[in-house]
């Protein structure tokens, strides 16, 4: 994006319409604000409206659950949720955590809870606590559903009674070992990054492939601005990557603008160079820094990622170098999705 | 002046500014209701207002929190509604801005492109770009450092440029 484009866009934004409130609306709102301390506040109106709306919703929910087959197509359109997390607390035993980012599982979850019967209740229970939490792309909780025994479930703080048979079917499907997060001492992000760095330095490609995301593969970027056409290899290709003599185009050189045309082995020597980072000056965990003039867009390209940056000051000024390992969660384990090299750019 | 008089005064002075922010952040249909909510919150929370801060940025920061809450509520409603109701119960999130904004096609496209950005970018584009708040004011509203405002604005402009390119490409 050129400076001129940027200025033009900024001018356009300044000229965006800024309509004022109509006089009538203005008076109405002013009146409502000034009277908001009265006993029957707007908030109460909203609460009553909310309660009525919720009642209506659940009436429809119960009503429509008699015909569940028609709803499935609708549910599949809901794609805001990217992660489901299941936590179980049983008595004094330590809680276990189940988690899944598999869209199939999440869709299945939706369909299953969509087909259940719900009746509002004031009854509470605390026999056990099994919670399903759904997260969106920004890792924000979208909703929480807790089962507490005696067929009671709490959805976002409100209690409902569910059909026992359906509940059993639900828990037998979702609260299973299948979704259990690997609790066997999951390495910390830094530990895992150090391991990957060693594998890279030792060129242990087979073990490296095990670290790679099986669906997304591994992306290589010569600079911290990750381009949309960056070279990506699948998990299988990684195993034999250094034996591959194909010349790939990995991007364009900063400054000259010439294409970076190298074999994987040459690229590794020049733009990965993992052994140089074994005693890195800085190791930054989930802390992407803007160094120099080039924009670091790792966050944009991998919004859910966890990152570890190895940074080396270099002997001369502006001779710094960095290597960022980008990981994403997959079914509770961390997988490598990108290796991003960074250096001073003009 | 008592609290009510001060808030009334602020509503006169800054009501439209906050209204503009909400139009772009939430959409024109809910902007009026939320504007009311912002000032009611300001009135109730008046004691937490510190004299040294600027009323305008204080009101903008309340508006931003109200907007974040609203978006969260919409997500929950959307989740609840996916079960039986199909679209009827979904809050309208893609209201055409035509009714409130003007008919200029370019403005409509920019509005749509802004809506596609992530929330931090939307905040900074609306506050800095459209409402022309200073870097210091924006930092105050968003509780960011000035340098974070600068760098996020820079990225947001690039992202908006890209979103616009996509919008035009799809048209």
UniProtKB/TrEMBL annotation, chain A:
TM helices/strands, residue ranges: 45-63
Give the highest taxon in the source lineage: Bacteria
Disordered: region residues:
1-21
Keywords, comma-separated and alphabetical? Membrane, Transmembrane, Transmembrane helix
Q: Where is the composition biased (Basic and acidic residues)?
A: 11-21
What protein name applies here? Uncharacterized protein
Organism of derivation: Virgibacillus litoralis
UniProtKB/TrEMBL annotation, chain B:
Q: Which InterPro entries match?
A: RNA_pol_sigma-70-like, RNA_pol_sigma-70_dom, RNA_pol_sigma70_ECF_CS, RNA_pol_sigma70_r2, RNA_pol_sigma70_r4_t2, RNA_pol_sigma_r2, RNA_pol_sigma_r3/r4-like, WH-like_DNA-bd_sf
Residue ranges occupied by any RNA polymerase sigma-70 region domain in the UniProt entry:
11-75
Q: Where is the RNA polymerase sigma factor 70 region 4 type domain?
A: 108-157
- Superkingdom of source: Bacteria
The alphabetical list of record keywords is: DNA-binding, Sigma factor, Transcription, Transcription regulation
Q: Which Pfam families match?
A: Sigma70_r2, Sigma70_r4_2
Matching Gene3D superfamilies: 1.10.1740.10, Winged helix-like DNA-binding domain superfamily/Winged helix DNA-binding domain (1.10.10.10)
Record has Transmembrane as a keyword: no
- PANTHER family given in the database record: RNA POLYMERASE ECF-TYPE SIGMA FACTO, RNA POLYMERASE SIGMA FACTOR SIGV
Q: What's this protein's family per the entry?
A: Belongs to the sigma-70 factor family. ECF subfamily.
Q: What protein am I looking at?
A: RNA polymerase sigma factor
Q: Which organism is it from?
A: Virgibacillus litoralis
């Amino acid at each position: 994006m050129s400076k001129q484009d940027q200025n033009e866009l900024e001018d356009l934004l300044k000229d965006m319409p800024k309509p004022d409130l109509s006089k009538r609306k203005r008076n109405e709102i002013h009146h409502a604000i000034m009277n908001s301390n009265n006993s029957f506040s707007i908030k109460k109106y909203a609460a009553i409206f909310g309660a009525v709306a919720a009642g209506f919703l659940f009436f429809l929910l119960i009503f429509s659950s008699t015909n569940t087959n028609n709803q499935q197509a609708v549910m599949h359109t809901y794609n805001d949720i990217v992660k489901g997390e299941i936590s179980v607390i049983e008595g004094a035993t330590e809680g276990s955590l189940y988690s899944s980012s598999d869209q199939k599982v999440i869709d299945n979850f939706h369909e299953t809870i969509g087909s259940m019967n719900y009746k509002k209740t004031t009854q509470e229970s605390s026999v056990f606590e099994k919670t399903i939490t759904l997260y969106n792309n920004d890792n924000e909780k979208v909703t929480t559903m807790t089962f507490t025994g005696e067929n009671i479930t709490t959805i976002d703080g409100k209690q409902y009674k569910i059909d026992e048979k359906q509940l059993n079917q639900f828990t037998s499907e979702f609260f299973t070992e299948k979704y259990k997060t690997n609790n066997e001492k999951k390495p910390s992000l830094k530990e895992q990054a150090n391991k990957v760095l060693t594998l890279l330095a030792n060129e242990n490609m087979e073990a490296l492939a095990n670290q790679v995301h099986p669906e997304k593969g591994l992306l290589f970027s010569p600079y911290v601005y990750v381009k949309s056409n960056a070279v990506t290899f699948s998990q299988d290709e990684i195993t034999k990557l250094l034996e591959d003599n194909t010349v790939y185009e990995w991007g364009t050189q900063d400054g000259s603008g010439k294409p970076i045309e190298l074999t994987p082995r040459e690229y590794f020597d020049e733009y990965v160079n993992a052994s140089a980072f074994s005693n890195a000056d800085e190791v930054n965990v989930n802390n992407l820094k803007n160094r120099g003039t080039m924009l670091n867009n790792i966050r944009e390209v991998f919004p859910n990622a966890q990152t570890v940056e190895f940074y080396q000051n270099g002997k001369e000024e502006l001779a710094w170098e960095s290597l960022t390992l980008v990981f994403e969660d997959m079914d509770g384990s961390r997988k490598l999705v990108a290796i991003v090299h960074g250096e001073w750019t003009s | 002046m008592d609290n009510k008089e001060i808030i009334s005064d602020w509503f006169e002075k800054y009501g439209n500014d906050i209204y503009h922010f909400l139009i772009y952040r939430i959409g024109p249909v809910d902007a009026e209701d939320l504007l009311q909510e912002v000032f009611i919150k300001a009135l109730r929370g008046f004691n937490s207002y510190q004299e040294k801060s600027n009323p305008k940025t204080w009101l903008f920061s309340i508006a931003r929190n109200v907007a974040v809450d609203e978006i969260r509520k919409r997500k929950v409603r959307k989740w609840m509604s996916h079960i039986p109701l199909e679209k009827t119960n979904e809050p309208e999130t893609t209201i055409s801005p035509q009714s409130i904004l003007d008919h200029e096609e370019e403005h409509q496209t920019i509005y749509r492109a802004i809506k596609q950005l992530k929330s931090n970018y939307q905040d900074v584009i609306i506050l800095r770009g459209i409402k022309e708040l200073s870097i210091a004011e924006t930092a105050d509203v968003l509780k960011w450092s000035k340098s974070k405002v600068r760098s996020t604005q820079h990225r947001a402009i690039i992202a908006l440029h890209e979103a616009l390119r996509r919008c035009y490409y799809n048209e």
